[in-house]
Design a protein that fits this description.
Helices cover 36% and strands 17% of the residues. By secondary structure, it is α+β, with helices and mostly antiparallel strands. Bound molecules: guanosine-5'-monophosphate (5GP) (2 copies).
Length: 245
């Protein structure tokens, strides 16, 4: 016959085992590729180009003076984010062949050496896109459509904000809030004369990538109170500095 004491100790062992199993489920098996929303990050090409690092125009030519896409980044409400969620995924140009013209125009790469964009798109797809729960085509199409929907340059123009001048960050943020409907995060960098300037605009998008939302959390970083919105035509790329030499 099993004693009462033995039964008690078996029950307590079973209880402990259940607790351990539950912990394993919550902490070990929890997916590390989950996310709560996206940042749509758009860069201002003139500000990418007029830093010390400079830039190289795409092989397709100097981009128009407009915001361009940096990426569509899955993010969590606690500020962390998943990345490189599928080691086997690689960028397949044939899946976006009908979007290539739009990608060259709205998602050009300004890094050196000059490129046709494929390397930048591959990086963004592998690092962020593979965590988005969208397939490659949906990922690029969604980012392009959201960029068009935000219409940032026009929104700023409508508020009297045009390239080539200085503005307060508050005025830029208020104009975007008014025109797009949601508060952006504005990231700055510094040009070669150490002016703080508008570099990137972050807008938040719901987790199904269908519309903008108020940001659950903003990235860190602050701009000076008065920042430059530089004109693209006045900045120089490495291509051009080579031409001058
Ligand atoms: P940086 O250090 O230049 O701010 O960021 C380097 C890279 O880290 C970005 O291009 C992006 O891939 C990633 N990253 C930086 N901040 C964030 C963020 O707040 N959310 C996400 N999802 N990725 C970020
Ligand atoms: P992140 O990890 O910061 O999202 O991606 C930035 C990477 O893409 C860097 O390795 C950067 O050199 C490359 N890259 C290529 N073209 C561009 C561009 O036009 N803008 C930015 N921000 N990064 C670019």
């Amino acid at each position: 016959m099993i004693s009462k004491a033995k039964m008690k100790s078996s029950a307590s062992m079973l209880f402990r085992l259940l607790v351990v199993l539950q912990c394993v489920t919550v902490f070990c098996l929890a997916r590390d590729d989950d996310f709560d929303f996206f940042y749509l990050v758009q860069q201002w090409p003139a500000s990418y180009c007029d830093t010390k690092r400079s830039c190289c125009y795409p092989t397709t030519g100097k981009p128009a003076e407009d915001f361009s896409i940096h990426g569509l980044w899955p993010n969590r409400n606690d500020g962390s984010w998943p990345s490189n969620c599928d080691d086997d995924a690689s960028f397949d140009e044939s899946e976006v062949s009908d979007l290539i013209n739009r990608m060259q125009k709205d998602w050009p790469s300004l890094a050196c050496p000059s490129s046709d964009g494929v390397r930048f798109w591959t990086h963004e797809w592998e690092k962020h896109g593979t965590c988005s729960l969208l397939n490659e085509r949906q990922y690029f199409q969604t980012a392009l459509d959201l960029k068009a929907k935000s219409n940032l340059l026009q929104v700023l123009k409508d508020a009297g904000i045009t390239p080539g001048k200085f503005y307060t960050v508050e005025r830029i943020k208020d104009a975007i809030k008014e025109g797009v409907g949601y508060t952006p995060f504005v990231e700055c960098n510094v040009d070669q004369s150490r002016n703080s300037q508008l570099y990137q605009v972050y807008l938040c998008v719901d987790s199904s990538a269908s519309d903008f939302i108020e940001c659950p959390v903003f990235p860190h970083g602050r701009c000076g109170s008065r920042i430059e919105f530089p004109s693209f035509s006045s900045s120089t790329s490495e291509n051009e500095s080579r031409d001058v030499l």
